[in-house]
Structure to design on (624 residues):
């Protein structure tokens, strides 16, 4: 009896955690989403979500989240690949992770200085002869800063996948006459696909609901679902609408995880 | 296995014991009762030195917490987890808190310094007879602009912001009432307008401002204006005077069509536990010397008439921050428009933010 009983006992903290901090909040969000601004039960929030304002908001959130994920991947994959080739892998990896220990807001404020009209970035542009231009409060600065913030989360899973790749497979590909690019396409990339998927999930989902960066770096010229949720909870006190947007975000999250996880089983 | 089981039980027991002990200790001293006073104020809105002085004079320990919007403050007080003894909401929020029965009436015989407040700021519509609130600071909403970056521009009207020369040069604040109110004022409507056609008209007008808008920001506009990042900003008078100390090129004006006049006020919320201490605190802050010191630090406009005489002349006589009654009569105080209107204002504001030129 002892063994089975103990296993159940060990499960207790985990179950309590999941129940209190995962299931209960999701149920609460779902519950609130069925109440209008006066606290009456209704589906009005769901109707409102399908009006042009919120649909446009959803589309624009998607577009930026996609851009951020795509650019992160473009930068992260080669970086992770190079990291596995270096001598002191762990040290280099640490250097990439260290910036993620710095508070997000602090980094955002630092970028306000760097991208400012008289900031370091513009000084550099001036020096190489391009001339200064507006960087802060543009799409460019928004995507740049978010990519910078998310990139460690993209590099880590890809690095792990690349690092655990059996070198014998590469030798085999080489022996069998595969060119470098074929080896990459047919051996390396498929075997690290799981890492890429994890990285994309970890970046795409938070990118959908960013809100502080949209104000600090993009000056509210970029509006995401996160901005709308913040506004409904803090300003209009319309918790119902805020929750409804959150419900859609959760649904989208499940969809993405299901889509990216689906192929693995098929393969 | 048995050892593990014993350890598990022991840890659980110890945790429970500690929880009980913490509860006991909290109840026995601090965090509630006569020895402490929990003050809930806007960020950077008091000279903290005065808090220590109050502690020394009365022996009460002050727990000081801050909020960054009236709505956030309301939410916390509604939840009632903390025993806030003093809060400092704006006027329209006081109306709302009264509706929801969240305030305690003041005992005027405990506020011997109340007579120092200027008559102009007493007995206002949101709290007639000052039964629940005492004015803390007041101010306006206006245009903060950089004279050096815009040498041949003058600002007298809201419409000056629509000038094509100001392309990508204006900062707005991230507040639906402020921005839509500005558009309503520029069209000659009241900033408390609830006519949906007028509001749609205001949105249309705001959308034509988009090419001039550099960003819609929060408190960062102070930093950005101080660093010459933008030439013009919508601003609260107190924020304006604060950055004008840092950047001499800046000037502030309240447009002639009218604008918002606001009051922040000390109240005692229902959550209060140390009601006597709360009165002591309000009375302390009303002393002319204390109010003057606080004004010099915060740099918003004080409603305390006696303290004005203790301020440096260039501060007390500055018409931009102490406008004459003729001007303030033209300004409007935000009314509590109700949840539906607030929601509409915010929906329109969201549409404006999403509008691309």
């Amino acid at each position: 009896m002892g063994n089975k009983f103990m296993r159940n006992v060990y499960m207790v903290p985990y179950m309590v955690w999941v129940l209190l901090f995962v299931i209960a909040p999701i149920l609460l969000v779902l519950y609130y989403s069925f109440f209008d601004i006066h606290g009456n039960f209704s589906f009005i929030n769901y109707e409102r979500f399908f009006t042009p304002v919120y649909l446009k908001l959803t589309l624009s959130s998607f577009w930026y989240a996609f851009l951020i994920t795509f650019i992160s991947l473009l930068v992260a994959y080669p970086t992770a690949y190079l990291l596995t080739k270096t001598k002191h892998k762990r040290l280099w990896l640490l250097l990439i992770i260290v910036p993620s220990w710095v508070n997000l807001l602090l980094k955002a404020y630092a970028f306000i200085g760097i991208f400012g009209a008289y900031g370091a970035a513009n000084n550099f542009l001036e020096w190489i002869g391009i001339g200064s231009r507006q960087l802060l409060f543009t799409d460019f600065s928004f995507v740049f800063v978010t990519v910078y913030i998310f990139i460690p989360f993209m590099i880590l899973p890809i690095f792990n996948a690349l690092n655990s790749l059996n070198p014998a497979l590469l030798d085999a590909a080489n022996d069998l006459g595969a060119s470098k690019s074929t080896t990459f396409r047919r051996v390396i990339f498929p075997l690290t696909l799981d890492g890429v998927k994890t990285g994309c999930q970890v970046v795409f989902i938070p990118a959908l609901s960013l809100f502080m960066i949209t104000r600090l770096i993009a000056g509210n010229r970029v509006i995401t679902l996160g901005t709308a949720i913040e506004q409904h909870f803090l300003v209009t006190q319309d918790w119902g609408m805020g929750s409804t947007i959150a419900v859609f975000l959760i649904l989208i999250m499940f969809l993405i995880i299901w889509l990216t996880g689906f192929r693995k089983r098929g393969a | 296995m048995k050892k593990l089981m014993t350890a598990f039980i022991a840890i659980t027991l110890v945790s429970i014991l500690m929880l009980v002990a913490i509860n006991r200790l909290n109840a026995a001293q601090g965090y509630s009762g006569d020895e402490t006073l929990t003050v809930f104020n806007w960020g950077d809105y008091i000279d903290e030195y005065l808090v220590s002085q109050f502690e020394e004079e009365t022996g009460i320990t002050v727990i000081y917490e801050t909020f960054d919007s009236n709505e956030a403050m309301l939410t916390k007080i509604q939840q009632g987890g903390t025993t806030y003894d003093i809060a400092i909401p704006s006027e329209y929020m006081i109306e709302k808190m009264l509706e929801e029965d969240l305030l305690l009436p003041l005992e005027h015989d405990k506020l011997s310094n109340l007579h120092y407040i200027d008559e102009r700021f007493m007995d206002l519509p949101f709290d007639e007879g000052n039964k629940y609130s005492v004015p803390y600071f007041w101010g306006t909403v206006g245009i903060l602009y950089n004279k050096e970056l815009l040498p041949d521009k003058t600002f007298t009207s809201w419409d000056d912001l629509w000038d094509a020369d100001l392309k990508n040069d204006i900062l707005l604040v991230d507040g639906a009432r402020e921005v839509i109110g500005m558009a309503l004022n520029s069209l000659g409507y009241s900033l408390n307008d609830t006519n949906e056609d007028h509001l749609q008209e205001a949105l249309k007008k705001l959308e034509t401002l988009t090419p001039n808008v550099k960003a819609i920001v929060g408190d960062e506009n102070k930093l950005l204006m101080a660093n010459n990042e933008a030439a013009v900003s919508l601003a609260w008078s107190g924020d304006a005077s604060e950055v004008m100390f840092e950047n001499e090129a800046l000037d502030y004006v309240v447009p002639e069509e009218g604008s918002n006049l606001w009051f922040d006020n000390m109240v005692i919320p229902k959550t209060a536990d140390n009601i006597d201490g709360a009165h002591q605190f309000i009375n302390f802050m009303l002393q002319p010397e204390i109010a003057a010191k606080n004004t010099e630090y915060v740099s918003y406009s004080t409603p305390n008439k006696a303290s004005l005489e203790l301020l440096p002349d260039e501060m007390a006589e500055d018409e931009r921050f102490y406008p004459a009654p003729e001007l303030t009569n033209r300004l409007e105080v935000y009314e509590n428009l109700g949840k539906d209107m607030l929601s509409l204002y915010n929906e329109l504001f969201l549409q404006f933010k999403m509008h691309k030129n």
Summary: Chain B has a mean pLDDT of 90. The first strand of chain B starts at residue 36 and ends at 42. The interface with chain A takes residues 1-2, 4-5, 8, 69, 71-72, 74-75, 168, 171, 174, 176, 214-218, 220, 223-224, 227-229, 339-340, 342-343, 346-347, 350-351, 353-354 of chain B (CB under 8 Å). Residues 139-261+332-354 of chain B form a domain with the D-Maltodextrin-Binding Protein; domain 2 fold (CATH 3.40.190.10).
